[in-house]
Design a protein that fits this description.
The chain is an alpha/beta fold. The protein is about 45% helix and about 10% strand. The protein binds flavin mononucleotide and 2-Ketohexanoic acid. 2-Ketohexanoic acid binds next to loops.
Length: about 375
């Protein structure tokens, strides 16, 4: 049966549920479980989708819009859509080219990519594959701060346009799929390329260290459960790049992020992979927007699947969203072509959703496009 598939692109459907199922048939079972998995009972993962599905758009008719303008400006940069690729670790579990294929697809569609600290390709390799296309770097601040500083320097030197520091995974969530299979890409050495290529990290290893020693050292220092807001202030002092804090759900944490030097926040539940039973990102979004005011960039992720989802997030105060798992399913199905396919679907769906809502541009999208039970 596998022979029958060889050399032929698996069917790239435009139906995301079918696409995920197809990826589940093509990807290695433990890799698919890692990507699709959530924490605990999966309640927060489901709540992420339920929050979008519970909201309804109320479209307006005959506004004469030939083509809706989906572009947006973020940190002074014009983006064709209010969408960036979310940082997803260890993408070689889906395809041998990993993040290099992803960034080429991102470049072909104009969607910026946020590269994970735990990418399976080095940030320099991905910069080269990007060929000047905008990218941001997601930082897990290691407990060895000198390694963290080195990662930031490398990101700056390679032309990454912002640092997104993730604060919701200083402890790894309780993830049954990973625990039961005993599978972790990182323990197999996938997703630590930015460390093994780092001179400061390597200096902390014996000269004759083997791959196992590198993985063990990575496991010791790669995240830091003792992080506090003071560390964010330290990071702020390290770089002039825009600094965003990813993983915010409480409005007071959004305020604290700004007080400690952040330029923006990403409201996120990490796709339901961290605290099971937490509030959904979409539920938190309006309060976070209110807390930071109208001028601070607020992004959100966790559950974005359709063009209408993007509009709903924008209506509740997001400047842009991060698109997650679906593009890795595309990568698993057909490498960079699969990622490009998934992105083109989202872009087309978004442009149609905006036009069908009766909005000429994203500036026209606000709470008024959402049903509030009172249509007088
Ligand atoms: C397989 C996988 C790996 C991830 N790795 C990272 C990571 O390295 N850094 C990070 O900040 N978030 C990471 N995330 C979280 C995503 O950036 C994003 O918040 C989440 O995928 C959004 O949920 P959705 O994909 O269901 O829309 C990861 C998510 C998945 C599914
Ligand atoms: C410590 C986090 C590992 C990568 C990640 O963010 C994820 O799997 O969700």
């Amino acid at each position: 049966m596998m022979e029958g598939l060889a050399g032929r692109a698996p069917r790239l459907t435009t139906d995301l549920t079918a696409l995920e199922a197809a990826a589940g048939r093509v990807m290695a079972p433990e890799a698919f479980a890692y990507v699709s998995g959530t924490a605990g009972s999966g309640a927060t993962g489901r709540a992420g989708r339920a929050a979008f599905e519970a909201l309804r758009l109320v479209p307006r008719m005959l506004r004469g819009t030939r083509r809706a303008d989906t572009s947006v400006t973020l940190f002074g940069q014009r983006l064709p859509v209010p969408v960036l690729l979310a940082p997803l670790a260890a993408q070689q579990v889906a395809h041998p080219e990993g993040e290099s294929a992803t960034v080429r697809a991102a470049a072909a569609t104009g969607v910026p990519m946020v590269l994970s600290t735990f990418a399976s390709r080095t940030l320099e390799e991905v910069a080269e594959a990007a060929g000047g296309h905008p990218r941001w770097f997601q930082l897990y601040l290691p407990s060895d701060r000198a390694v963290g500083a080195s990662l930031v320097r490398r990101a700056e030197a390679s032309g990454y346009g912002a640092i997104v520091v993730t604060v919701d995974a200083t402890h790894l969530g309780f993830r049954p799929a990973e625990l039961d299979s005993g599978y972790s890409p990182f323990l197999r050495g996938t997703g630590i390329a930015n460390f093994t290529s780092d001179p400061v990290f390597r200096a902390g290893l014996p000269a004759d260290a083997d791959a196992t020693q590198a993985v063990l050292r990575w496991a010791q220092i790669s995240t830091d459960p003792t992080l506090t807001w003071e560390d964010l202030a330290w990071l702020r002092g390290l770089t002039r790049l825009p600094l965003l804090v990813k993983g915010i759900l409480h409005p007071d944490d959004a305020r604290l992020a700004l007080e400690h030097g952040a330029d923006g926040v990403v409201v996120s539940t990490h796709g339901g992979r961290q605290l099971d039973g937490s509030v959904s990102a979409l539920e938190s979004l309006p309060a976070v927007r209110a807390a930071v005011g109208s001028d601070v960039p607020v992004l959100m992720d966790s559950g974005i699947r359709t063009g209408s989802d993007v509009l709903k997030a924008v209506a509740l105060g997001a400047d842009a969203v991060l698109y997650g798992r679906p593009y890795v399913y595309g990568l698993g199905l057909d490498g960079g072509r699969g990622v490009e396919h998934v992105l083109r679907c989202l872009l087309t769906d978004l442009a149609l959703a905006l036009a069908l809502t009766g909005c000429a541009s994203l500036a026209d999208v606000g709470p008024h496009v959402l049903a509030n039970g009172d249509l007088r």
